[in-house]
Amino acid sequence: MKVAITGASGLIGSALVPYLRGRGDEVVRLVRRPATAPDEVTWDPAAGTVDLAGLEGIGAVVHLAGAGVGDHRWTDAYKKTILDSRVDGTHTIVKAMTSLDSRPATLVAGSAIGWYGDTGDRAVDETAPAGTGFLADVVRAWEAAADPAREAGIRVTHARTGLVVAKEGGAWAKLFPLFKLGLGGKLGSGKQYWSWISLRDEVAALTYLLDNPSMSGPVNLTGPVPVTNAEVTSVMGQVLGRPTLFAVPSFALKTVLGEFSTEILSSARVIPEVLAESGFTWQDPTVESAIQAALR
């Protein structure tokens, strides 16, 4: 299959591209500069433009592009960047897909478990309504931006991804160095649930969504068992053989991170019900396995 990928240079995209190529798929990478390689296609999500000629013959799109949620302090300007990068990018790729003479059959659209907001101790699956808060509002608008593709007869799956366990990027990339130095510890009370997924399971799940025509709508891409931040802290210490004494109080996180600290301290107990019921098999069903896989 010929697959176009946005966000191909990001944490997930840079792992997905070689995986798909390794199994024989032809991959086209959308880049925000003049294309310099045969497998590149230029697009400008802010301007709403795509080189349509480069997308001819594609069977599916995996849309992963978006500004990093934890990359900068949440000023009003950066919050707008987070929202616009997702909504404008989705509008642009959907418009391109529906403009092609031969429309691709599938859009696997990046999304996030931020949809659910703070769930506390309450477990939620794909049937749960949107929560409240900035990220919940962003994800709701992000997913809605793909509606025109669905209306055009394209199968749309929203990959609601949790915290990806990886050394190369995301939240865990910031945790590993601290824990290796023996400076790791729980964040706030440690009672908040973290819904995680290993990088290799994230790639496998995205591929699974591509391959299975029955998979549409929201799908939680998380490990089968969410754990609390205190449990993550304990497992990180055990795997790395380091003490975990340096707890970070909530007020310190709020001082350093500003509004983004609410996401670190909030709880997301998200269950991947759709994947589980469909028969998907996790390579890393426990957070310990996911951490060990990342270190390898």
Number of helices: 11
Mean pLDDT: 95
N-to-C SSE string, H for helix and E for strand: EHEEEEHEHHEEHEEHEEHHHHH
Uncertain residue ranges:
none
Spatial gap, N to C terminus: 30 Å
- Give the spatial strand order of the biggest sheet: 4-3-2-1-5-6-7-11
The CATH C-level class name: Alpha Beta
By secondary-structure content and strand pairing, the structural class works out as: alpha/beta
CATH topology: Rossmann fold
Largest sheet: 8 strands, mixed
Gyration radius, to the nearest Å? 19 Å
Classified in CATH, the superfamily is NAD(P)-binding Rossmann-like Domain
How many beta strands in the DSSP annotation? 12
How big a fraction of the residues is strand?
A: 15-25%
Quickly count the domains: 1
What report would you give on this structure?
The protein is an alpha/beta fold and 296 residues long. The chain has a single domain, classed as Rossmann fold (3-Layer(aba) Sandwich), CATH 3.40.50.720. The chain has eleven helices and twelve strands. It has helices at residues 11-22, 76-99, 134-144, 147-151, 170-180, 199-211, 229-240, 250-257, 261-265, 273-278, 287-295; strands at residues 2-6, 26-31, 40-44, 49-50, 60-63, 106-112, 155-161, 163-165, 193-194, 196-198, 217-221, 227-228. The protein has an eight-stranded mixed β-sheet, with helices on both faces. A two-stranded parallel ribbon has the order 8-10. It has a two-stranded antiparallel sheet with strand order 9-12. α1 links the parallel β1 and β2 (26-31). α1 crosses α6 and α7 (229-240) crosses α11 (287-295). The longest helix has 24 residues, at 76-99. The radius of gyration is 19 Å and the shape is globular. The chain starts with a strand and ends with a helix.
